[in-house]
What does this fold into?
Amino acid sequence: MSVAHDTDTFYIEIWAWLVGLLAIGTAAVFLPIPKLAALLVVFAVAIVKAVLVIRNYMHLKAEHLMIYLIAAIPALLILIMAIALLPDIAFRR
Amino acid sequence: MEAELELSLRPRTPAHQPVTDSLTEIPTGKLGLWVFLAGEIMIFGGMIACFILLRIAAGGWASDAAHVDWQIGTLNTLVLLTSSLTMILALAAVRADRRSAVKLYLGLTVALGLLFLVVKGYEYAGHFAEGYTPLSGMFWSFYYLMTGLHALHVTGGIVVNFVLLMMAIRGTLWEGGQGRVEFAGLYWHFVDVVWIFLFPLLYLSLKLT
It folds into this structure.
């Protein structure tokens, strides 16, 4: 079996996982489970899907540390902004 | 003297070899693209963070979100995930020098991107017919802003992929083509990742509140 064929098969497997996770995330909304649990499932599935795409399709798993830093720093800044604003916005009376 | 000048002006990197950053050895094109994507993370991340914070602050929005069709959203997510697959298969094909496969996969990526926009347009038309415009409330402002900006990014990706497809058809893609398809792919997958978060945020989560 050729290397090219193996690579294609791997990418198709990742796509199958993504589609399966899409089905799980969507079904969670309609399952008879507590709403908070369903919400957690929906976003946990979204994070796993994003990680699958970033690691395998964007090849971040094989990238230089510099690329990780370039991608992580803005995400971290957004997180800090959200956490900093949360008390003012969410708990104002 | 002239020979020295010619020598100094000659590119130090051989033709079709990617120019790399001297410190990290990362191709400068890739480095530049990731810096661009970092800016995009700030834009979409900022909007998503504001959506979540204002949703916590304002409450509600569920009655508005009930008008957003989760089935159409699921279909469009499937379309975009599949287009990510065809894009990465195009890169694998260009690396293996399978030229007809590159054309096929780039063509499929463009077609799926267009299908995404058609479905989104159909969705927008339905909302407007019901009277839901960007001015209909906070939820709709966010909805149109985030999905509209995302659709613009999809459009940009379609244009880039179409240009690559034309180059592949005309036979001008193959010298240095690996880098071009890789960078276009990085952008396209990023657009996919943004939608992976927009879909549960706009179509699913508010059904649970």
